Amino acid sequence: MTDPSEIKHLISAANAGDKQAQEEFFAKLSVRFSKLITRELRKYPMLANGVSLDKKSYEVCQYAMNEVRKLCPISNPDFSFIHVINVLHNVLDTIISNSLVELAKKGDSEAENLLFSIIRKRLMERIIKKRGRDTQYENK
Known about the structure:
Elements: H1 4-15, H2 19-42, H3 53-71, H4 81-105, H5 109-138
């Protein structure tokens, strides 16, 4: 998915009803996103308990692609690649957080610490984003 013109062509063809273009777009997106999933899961080795990292990445990727197909249909005139990426990241973050919650409930202190670290990071991002919006409106 490195050639933007190819991606635009696939999206245009899929919008026109070409099912093969739609499948090719999602296949390329899946390959690209599976690498990101694997990289993110490596940060949390305790999530792959008894399951290979490749298998876990594949399962997460398949689930994420199904969510994207539901939430961001390529035939929608408001289709946005940025929205697709946001959905994919949200799905991945949710799966990681939910997995850490389950481990923390079982008494895994490392999972609990990681979970609180993630929550703290998201809260700080939210505060910074909120402050940026407030400052933006104050200048007008």
